[in-house]
Amino acid sequence: MWKFKFGLWAVVLITSVFSFSACGGDDDNDTFVPPANIEVALKQLYPGAQNIEWEVKGVYYVADCWVTGDELEVWFDVNANWVMTENELDNVNQLVPAVYTAFMDSDYNTWVVTDVYVLTYPLNPTTSVIQVKQGSQRYSLYFSQEGGLLHEKNISNGDDTNWPPTE
């Protein structure tokens, strides 16, 4: 009987430890509110933004929101300067024809497309990103709007964030 009680308590203790460890600090904070000047900057740039959720990525404040049916991530620096907008598309068919053709002509055209984005910036040219995978390999392919492959980023390590360019 004593062994049964000890075993039962051990199970309860281990379950409790795992339950509390699941509440780590890496979870998104759905109630995060950025400084007021960042919120004002978003409303000036995208007055119709709805369902806004904020987070911090690196040194940037990022608004995940919806604008006229598009899901956007709008990035600002600490001084409330807009640095990038990431627009997630449904599929590669929504890309400009030059990018679609360049991807279909690339060595990656048989890979599985997992995500498609268009990145716009205040100073740099618009970039299209096609994320692909084959087995355990994953890549982000960055294209100019004219269809040139700008660079490939290996994202097999799990970091598939499209970071703003550093000036």
From TrEMBL:
Keyword Signal: yes
Signal sequence coordinates: 1-24
Domain Putative beta-lactamase-inhibitor-like PepSY-like: 60-150
Taxonomic superkingdom: Bacteria
Record-linked Pfam families: PepSY_like (PF11396)
UniProt KW keywords: Signal
InterPro entries referenced in this protein's UniProt entry, alphabetically: PepSY-like
Name of this chain's protein: Ribosome biogenesis protein
